[in-house]
Input
Amino acid sequence: MELWEALLLGLVEGLTEYLPVSSTGHLLVTQRLLGIESGEAANAFAIVIQAGAIVAVLGLYRARVIAMLRGLVGRDPEGLKLALALVAAFVPAAAAGLLLGDTIKSVLFGTWPVVIAWVVGGVLLVAFGGRLRKVEGGGLETLDWKRAMVVGLFQCLALWPGTSRSLAAIVGGVVVGLSLPAAVELSFLLGLLTLGAATAYEGLQSGSVMLDAYGAAPLAVGFAAAWVSAVLAVRFMVRSLQKYGLAIYGWWRIAIGVAVGAWMLSGASL
Output
């Protein structure tokens, strides 16, 4: 892997990880366009550079993270409540991923499943994104572990590449009574557990294969690019939420889904 390819993949990962557009789908298509063969090393690289996006949220939401850490040692009851809620929301998707991971990779990690998920999710966001913005829900401090587990069930939908973990968590958060800003923040914080577990698991399982194939330098470049671009993406989403809502991401999903689908129908292979 050339360093510029690692840089591009890192930028794609960071820009799309926390937006409701599916980083997995974007990375799969980008890898195909770059001619990077799908396999253990390529899949591991795409997942491990998520660590850059994790660091971005750790920095931007360090006050929440510190409160949760204080809660775990008995010094912040609200922080403990949030930490338990995040764990409860993490469990369903983690269990489903462990049980169905190999099947999902063999059946759904292709371009057409991603295109379908992009377009369907995009249409739903365009149709209902405006309504989500108007929902009057509670803040993140109102979330208990039972409702958080429902959010986790929604996040299971994101095991289909192209759906978007962020989108599933946001919709789940609104459904259980959170305001849209609170649901978006929940999706960011939940990503710390979900992405952290996936990164650690993939690193342990396939880290040596990835390093043998690509070396350490591309990994470092991809990590740094994902870190910086994720900071920019999160800040943009938070600042633009009330002005644009989520519909703009729906239009993007439809546009890229149609573009990639048309490319495939023209005879090109991805």
The chain has a mean pLDDT of 88. The chain has one domain: 3-265. The chain has twelve helices and no strands. The radius of gyration is 18 Å.
